[in-house]
Write a structure and sequence with these properties.
The chain has 89 residues and is mainly alpha-helical. The chain contains four helices and two strands; from the N terminus they run αααββα.
Length: 89
């Protein structure tokens, strides 16, 4: 779920050129705003998201968060290719 929050936040910035609101994240996850906020808080604690205190719409993905997105995406693609290769064999 936290990976989905990271990916969504990064994608939102690319499209909207601003940070997503909590309700945007909750809608994307199909979860309550409270649950979405818990995931955001955990990612903030892990240093994968950053927020400027006292500033609205300042949630950003850190370099550490981007690295996690990149590594998990590569790993998922490897698994998908391997599964496809095994299915064709």
């Amino acid at each position: 779920m936290q990976l989905r929050v990271l990916r969504f936040t990064e994608a939102w910035w690319l499209v909207e050129k601003k940070a997503p609101r909590g309700k945007d994240i909750a809608w994307h996850l199909n979860k309550s705003p409270g649950t979405a906020n818990e995931h955001v808080q955990q990612l903030l604690g892990k240093g994968m998201l950053h927020r400027i205190p006292g500033k609205n719409l300042s949630l950003t993905v850190t370099d550490k968060g981007r690295k996690v997105i990149e590594e998990t995406t590569k790993e998922q693609l490897k698994r998908k290719r391997k599964k496809k290769k095994n299915a064709n064999a």
